[in-house]
């Protein structure tokens, strides 16, 4: 089980500990930030007005184990899922799926969004499988969008409409997730 709490400036050091290379940063956030990642860039993230960001906490230990965010356009009832990362010590334990499910719970159940989209680099096959298992549909490929150390990375755009979300019981609170705080 995990609990989500609002991301604050005090969580900046966690992200800096978890994102240690330019490639990690790009996989996490696309081209939003510049390398080297620093506290000022991450502190600004905590104050973005249309973004909800959370830190995942292991309630057994109180340790921060992940981060997820949702950029919301309430006028059009859409959102963009992103900036998902887990602590190195928590990887391989299904935490990514729980973070995605929790964010989708907020998006569809609380905010009543119609659509949630995301972008993921095509070579990040672990993330692609996770998003497909979570119910996202591949919508297209943006070819050669980011140049990294002389190689081009392509991005897969994925989306989910409100009626396509896999059913959860109870709605919005997948097993093992505490309700999101914001």
UniProtKB/TrEMBL annotation:
Residue span(s) of domain N-acetyltransferase: 2-163
Region named Disordered: 163-182
Listed Pfam families: Acetyltransf_1 (PF00583)
Composition-biased stretches (Pro residues): 168-182
CDD domains per record: NAT_SF
InterPro entries, alphabetized: Acyl_CoA_acyltransferase, GNAT_dom
Organism domain of life: Bacteria
Protein name: GNAT family N-acetyltransferase
Source organism per UniProt: Actinomadura alba
């Amino acid at each position: 089980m995990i609990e989500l709490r609002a991301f604050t400036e005090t969580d900046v050091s966690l992200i800096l500990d978890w994102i240690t290379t330019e490639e990690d940063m790009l996989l996490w956030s696309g081209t939003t930030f510049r390398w080297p990642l620093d506290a000022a860039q991450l502190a600004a993230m905590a104050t973005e007005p249309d973004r909800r960001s959370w830190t995942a906490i292991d309630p057994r230990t109180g340790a921060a184990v992940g981060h997820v965010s949702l950029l919301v356009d309430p006028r059009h009832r859409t959102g963009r899922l992103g900036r998902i990362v887990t602590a190195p010590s928590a990887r391989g334990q299904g935490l990514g799926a729980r973070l995605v499910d929790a964010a989708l719970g907020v998006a569809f159940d609380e905010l009543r969004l119609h659509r949630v989209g995301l972008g993921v680099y095509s070579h990040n096959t672990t993330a692609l499988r996770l998003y497909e298992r979570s119910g996202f549909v591949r919508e297209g490929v943006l070819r050669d969008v980011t140049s990294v150390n002389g190689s081009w990375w392509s991005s897969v755009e994925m989306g989910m409409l409100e009626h396509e979300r896999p059913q959860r019981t109870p709605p919005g609170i997948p097993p093992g997730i505490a309700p999101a705080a914001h």
